[in-house]
Design brief:
The chain is an alpha/beta fold. It is about 30% helix and about 25% strand.
Length: about 550
């Protein structure tokens, strides 16, 4: 028996589980081929969103976007900006709706879910910032005079920016609204059409984001009511693969893991003109020198290692501490991590909740599994993670995908990849555990610290804690990462700055304030204002020839 779509609609959504293609909401059946569903990580028996995603939706969405692109791109910046400002107003109005859905679908604690919801409107302000440090300043174009042209005219050189066309956006589960929004807003601002596929772990949040975008397009009178300007295509890995490899798209804007990013690059090897913007994972180090403020260092490390239950690409994964302070630092980190408040996302105990559940059972098991491998290989487990459930009011049993922090001391970090099927296991291997697991080692010099910080194939974020300005400057110069901090943690960044990494963390196309850069391409032109073209040396011309 088929499940009615409306029976699965979350309270925050206006529509039942749906795709949005060519200006129409297309409700998805609750069962059949291609079913995806999201469950509340705090209450795994609670289905938040469920829908069967039909084949052919990607092709329909791409065709609709191609039809919409000419009118949308010609409509003008001011008109498009007005739509985005309306969207920002709607995000502010419905901030709690979005926070509720983020909380239920990802397990984020409510204060963090509210922060993500608030960031949606902020992204519009940052994108449309006209100040010298704003993103628009990078794509405004310019002109300059080249001097007199042939025939007494004047020649002008001009640079301007044009949209690529149809951009696909594939979102992650950990920031299911904020991170895809960081691609969508600049893409629309520059005149592109967008096809958005949310994470199959957070399809509901993606749908609500599109509901608000559609309302803004209609209210502000976009051409043909915005048909095809924004599309929503739900699905799993097969849909993502089809969308990122479709021959009629002009760009792939992706946030997620390196293995998926690699498949996207492989699928587009024969399309050098296609924009591929990848924001991938990280194995982010923090260096602590002997002159550092240990209180500040420990607090920032614990906060950045375990907020969002360790499910940030910028989460601190590795601590590299000078041996003169390592014992005290490691002890403080373990004690602080052990006392973190872990509870249901909507719980309101005195002092608040720091961590909620991890996204699903597989992620929960991955943390425990890696910890077990480290223990068997001789690493020192300073704080042992445990998987557990929480008993809640009105419930008869403990439930939810909770996992406590893991703190592990290793001898050295290496850039060797972990092979789960291999016989040998290196506790210091270059592996990103996407959860609350922190590894630490000690060093004796700054040289060794920098070498250990760079012992990774990733390169997203890194920090150093020191009062020595020379040491900090050297770290900033020699450490390989796209986000480098001094006396501050790795997790999080200002959207007014570029955001991205190198190595397995990205392909040098940073988001944040630089996201407009990959949403348009520069065009060079020459404008000659003269009535008579100059006849070059070696040419012959008679005016009668053109009469």
């Amino acid at each position: 028996m088929s499940i009615r779509p409306e029976a699965l609609k979350h309270a925050s959504l206006s529509q039942p589980p749906s795709n949005y293609i060519d200006g129409r909401w297309v409700p998805l059946p609750g069962d059949g081929a291609g079913v995806i569903e999201s469950r509340n990580p705090a209450h795994p028996d609670q289905v938040v969103w469920r829908g069967a995603c039909p084949k052919g939706a990607v092709g329909e969405a791409v065709a609709a976007a191609r039809r919409a692109f000419p009118a949308w791109s010609r409509w003008g910046r001011d008109n498009r900006f007005r739509v985005l400002k309306r969207f920002a107003e709607l995000c502010k109005k419905h901030q709690q709706r979005m926070a509720d859905l983020i909380c239920d679908e990802t397990g984020k604690v409510m204060w963090e879910a509210k922060g993500e919801a608030a960031a949606l409107a902020s992204k519009v302000d940052i994108t449309l910032d006209t100040s010298p440090i704003g993103g628009l300043a990078r794509v405004n174009g310019y002109e300059f005079e080249l001097g007199a042209a042939g025939g007494g005219g004047q020649k002008t050189a001009r640079c301007w920016f044009k949209p690529h066309g149809v951009m696909s956006v594939v979102g992650p589960f950990n920031f299911p609204a904020h991170l895809p929004n960081g691609h969508i807003i600049p893409a629309l601002a520059m005149g592109n059409c967008v096809i958005f596929k949310p994470s199959d772990k957070a399809p509901g949040v993606g749908q609500l984001l599109v509901e608000l975008l559609v309302e803004a397009l209609i209210v502000e009178g976009a051409p043909d009511k915005g048909r095809g300007v924004v599309s929503l295509v739900q699905g799993g890995a097969d849909v993502a693969g089809e969308l990122t490899a479709h021959p009629d798209i002009d760009g792939v804007l992706f946030t997620g893991s390196w293995p998926v990013g690699r498949r996207i690059m492989e699928a587009n090897l024969d399309r050098p003109g296609r924009i591929i913007a990848l924001e991938l994972g990280g194995n982010n180090p923090v260096v602590v020198m002997p002159d550092a403020d240990l209180r500040q260092s420990a607090i920032e490390i614990v906060r950045c290692a375990f907020n969002t239950t360790g499910q940030r690409c910028t989460s601190t994964r590795r601590v590299i501490a000078h041996n003169l302070v390592s014992d005290r630092l490691f002890r403080a980190i373990a004690k602080a991590a052990e006392r973190l408040v872990i509870d249901t996302p909507r719980a309101t105990p005195l002092g608040g909740v720091f961590m909620g559940p991890i996204i699903n059972e597989a992620a929960q098991k991955a943390v425990i599994n890696f910890q077990e491998h480290c223990a068997k290989a001789g690493a020192e487990i300073l704080l042992s993670a445990r998987a557990f459930g929480v008993k809640q009011a009105g419930r008869t049993k403990e439930e939810g995908y909770y996992v406590s922090p893991s703190v592990i001391k290793v001898n050295r970090f290496t850039n060797t990849e972990w092979n789960p099927k291999g016989a040998a296991f290196d506790p210091g291997c270059d592996h990103e555990v996407f959860g609350p697991l922190l590894r630490m080692c000690e060093v004796r010099t700054l040289d060794e610290a920098i070498e250990q910080a760079n012992a990774t194939r990733y390169g997203l974020a890194a920090s150093i804690f020191t009062k020595d300005q020379a040491a900090a400057e050297r770290f900033m110069l020699e450490c390989r990462a796209g986000c480098l901090n001094i006396n501050a943690g790795t997790a999080g960044a200002s959207s007014k700055l570029p955001f991205g990494g190198l190595g397995l963390s990205g392909n040098h196309r940073p988001a944040g304030s630089f996201s407009l850069d990959y949403c348009a391409y520069p065009v060079a032109g020459m404008i000659e204002r003269g009535e008579t073209a100059q006849v070059a040396d070696g040419m012959r011309w008679e005016d009668t020839w053109s009469r």
